[in-house]
Amino acid sequence: MKNLIVLCAILFSGTSCAQQAKDGTKSTFPAAEKIQKQESEWKKELTELEYYVLREKGTERAFTSPLNNIKEDGLFICAACKLPLFESSTKFKSGTGWPSFYEPINKVNVAEEDDLSFGMVRTEVLCARCDGHLGHVFPDGPKPTGMRYCINGAALKFVEKE
What we know:
Elements (H helix, E strand, L loop, with lengths): L1 H10 L7 E2 L5 E2 L11 H7 L2 H7 L19 E5 L5 E4 L3 E2 L7 E2 L8 E6 L6 E6 L5 E6 L9 E4 L4 E5 L2
Antiparallel strand pairs: 1-2, 3-4, 3-11, 5-6, 6-10, 7-8, 8-9, 9-10
């Protein structure tokens, strides 16, 4: 819990970790403030694979991410800007080869766009703060949402709860 509090304080200095949403519900994390950097800055900060996935909309090979095997309690954050994206409690084994979640930590932390590449229509998932490509979302996930956020492990970092 201490790591979460510290992470929240670092990520959102000057803002509260709990925020009242428009629909009256409490949000664990506030809406993402945009981060804009030159591509040269991202290249310096990210590994080659992270840059390829997050900035060039690439995909890591299936079943290669060590995050597939994470079972500990914690948060999956954006590898580029550290925005909290998914809680480990929403992770499930989809069999696809990529970390999969049935919902983001907060809908405002992810953006969705139509992806018409490869001759098909898919919904791309992006980090709402840095516009990094995370993966795609499909309507074939488990309850309670029925959604499968199929996310590149290279786009995420895991922060374990203490």
